[in-house]
Amino acid sequence: MRAQPQRRRSLLELAGPAFIVNDAMSHTANAPANAEKRYNVHRADLPLSCPTPEMALWNSHPRVYLPIENEPNGEAACPYCGSVFVLVD
Fold it and tell me: pLDDT tens digits for 12-21?
């Protein structure tokens, strides 16, 4: 009788119970990253980052925080992707 090959285990299986997921990072983003070039934001959304927490990070650039509240015209542009964020309130 031939021995069965062992099943490859995933990294999560190998890590076992010691693997801890950060709650802030465990939610599933429901918006594609940097899909639009202009976004309206509210003061409740501050501090502002690009990509925003609602955007998927796996296919985007590193997160950068944008000081939109200090801009005289209420607009800030992401230095990575060029998306423009407009403070509407």
Answer: 455 444 433 3
Q: Give the Cα separation of 7 and 27 in Å (integer).
A: 29
Amino acid at 42: H
Res. 78 pLDDT band, cuts 50 70 90: very high
Record the tokens describing residue 18, joined without a space.
């010691």
Residue type, 48: L
Listed in sequence order, the residues at least 6 apart from 89 whose beta carbon sits closer than 8 Å to its beta carbon are 42, 43
Identify which of 43, 41, 23 has the alpha carbon closest to the alpha carbon of residue 51: 41
pTM of the model: 0.60
Q: Which residue has the tokens 């992401």?
A: 78
